[in-house]
Amino acid sequence: MAEYLKLASGFVDFDQKSLAVAAAAIAFNPIYWNTVARQEYHNKVLTKLAGGNARLGCYLLAASIFSLGIFRDYLYEQALRSQPGHPDLETDLVKLIAGGLFLAGNVLVISSMWALGLTGTYLGDYFGILMDSRVTSFPFNVTDAPMYYGSTLSFLGTALWYGKPAGVLLTIEVLVVYLVALRFEDPFTAGIYEKREKERAKAKRGKKN
Ligand SMILES: *[C@@H]1O[C@H](CO)[C@@H](O)[C@H](O)[C@H]1NC(C)=O
């Protein structure tokens, strides 16, 4: 891995400002949604902003996360444009693999949005909009975090499509940032659902008495 990075870095132009801008955008997005979602959970900031309507608050968050994602993807493509290509990556086989990765990544992202719905995808749990039960259907039978791994595959596919080692480097950043986000998000959402289970159990006991 270290050897590969050293090899690849010879083909990365670190003097391009657009590279740093894309790297910053990749790191910023998960920090943004985690910060805002936790503010919502603790202080109901977005629900208040939406006049007390939690669902509308979640839609606001969804719109902002979605827009930031589009902007980040744009900055990523702009960064790749000003980077050198690697001759070994400029082959038909690599293009074919790139297309496959991009397609697989998008299937994971879109099908997980389909399975979770809008509020399920965009942190509805933090607004008190909980799923009835854990989704285990496709793509959740393939991976626990299809959104994140799908997005990573799309970044990698794009990097290989353009034959840019800088894109592979940024894809590694995407993966690391998502893995950190998962370590942060998974225990928190698990806690939200545990709390509901306890409340449900309590309500059941209350009914019996
Ligand atoms: C996941 O579910 C899909 C659709 O139901 C199915 O086609 C696929 O084989 C399953 N994959 C795994 C790994 O179980």
UniProtKB/TrEMBL annotation:
Its chief place of residence is endoplasmic reticulum
Keyword Lipid metabolism assigned to the entry: answer is yes
Question: Topological domain, Lumenal: which ranges?
Answer: 1-16, 38-49, 120-162
Name of the protein this chain belongs to: Phosphatidyl-N-methylethanolamine N-methyltransferase
Query: What family does the Swiss-Prot or TrEMBL record give for this protein?
Result: Belongs to the class VI-like SAM-binding methyltransferase superfamily. PEMT/PEM2 methyltransferase family.
- According to the record, the parts of this chain that enter the bilayer without crossing it are found at 17-37
As its record notes, the protein acts as a catalyst of: a 1,2-diacyl-sn-glycero-3-phospho-N-methylethanolamine + S-adenosyl-L-methionine = a 1,2-diacyl-sn-glycero-3-phospho-N,N-dimethylethanolamine + S-adenosyl-L-homocysteine + H(+); a 1,2-diacyl-sn-glycero-3-phospho-N,N-dimethylethanolamine + S-adenosyl-L-methionine = a 1,2-diacyl-sn-glycero-3-phosphocholine + S-adenosyl-L-homocysteine + H(+)
Biological-process GO terms, alphabetical: methylation; phosphatidylcholine biosynthetic process
**What's the EC number here?**
2.1.1.71
- Spell out the GO cellular component terms annotated for this protein, sorted alphabetically and separated by semicolons: endoplasmic reticulum membrane; mitochondrial membrane
Any one GO MF term held by the record is:
phosphatidyl-N-methylethanolamine N-methyltransferase activity
The pathway where this protein functions is:
Lipid metabolism; Phospholipid metabolism; phosphatidylcholine biosynthesis
Q: Does the keyword Ribosomal protein apply?
A: no
What keywords does the record list, in alphabetical order?
Endoplasmic reticulum, Lipid biosynthesis, Lipid metabolism, Membrane, Methyltransferase, Mitochondrion, Phospholipid biosynthesis, Phospholipid metabolism, S-adenosyl-L-methionine, Transferase, Transmembrane, Transmembrane helix
Source species of the chain: Pseudogymnoascus verrucosus
Main role? Catalyzes the second two steps of the methylation pathway of phosphatidylcholine biosynthesis, the SAM-dependent methylation of phosphatidylmonomethylethanolamine (PMME) to phosphatidyldimethylethanolamine (PDME) and of PDME to phosphatidylcholine (PC).
Q: Where are the transmembrane segments?
A: 54-75, 96-116
Residues that, per the record, bind S-adenosyl-L-methionine? L103, A104, G105, E185, D186
